[in-house]
Amino acid sequence: MFSYVHRFHAGGFADVHKHVIVLALLEHLKQKSSPFGVVDLFAGEGIYDLKSPQAQKNREYEQGVSKLLSRPKLHPWMQSYVNQLMQIPGNVGFELNTYPGSPWWIMHALREQDRAQFVENHSTCFPILKENMKTYPNAHVHKRD
Fold first, then answer.
1. Is the pTM of this model over 0.85?
2. What angle, 0 to 180 degrees and rounded to 10, lies between the N-to-C axes of helices 102-109 and 13-29?
3. Do residues 114 and 38 make contact, with C-beta atoms less than 8 angstroms apart?
4. Which residue blocks in the chain are alpha helix, DSSP H?
5. CB under 8 Å to 32, separation ≥6 — which residues?
6. pLDDT by residue for the chain (145 residues), tens digit each?
7. Residue 72 in 3-state DSSP?
8. CB-CB contact of 12 with 64 (8 Å)
């Protein structure tokens, strides 16, 4: 089994780009009233503690999401992303303690009629993802490859 664990990389440069693009795509899909579905094949845990030993090991968030917080002017998509990020409990001012993964961003962008399928096969990540998604009735979590 591939042993990639996202908590070591949360908030890194690639995460920022991926999440902003996902949000832009979802906003485009919501322009029509028809419901749609999203499938995330490598969902991870859904949300990450940036103070955890794993996130602190490489501190990838410092070269990713943290760089955006000090920018005086951002593209509207990026500014929306930062605004949402700073609404998460634990994130205060320019200090990030919590970083959401794709499942969190997706669920906060979907409408009631839309659905999401999250797939995670890693034995330690799956139960955390399942717990993190339990409050979203239109989220379905699967443990499979």
1. yes
2. 20
3. yes
4. 13-29, 53-58, 65-69, 76-85, 102-109, 125-132
5. none
6. 456 788 888 999 999 999 999 999 999 999 999 999 999 999 999 999 999 999 999 999 999 999 988 888 999 989 999 999 999 988 987 789 999 999 999 999 999 999 999 999 999 999 999 999 999 999 999 999 8
7. coil
8. yes
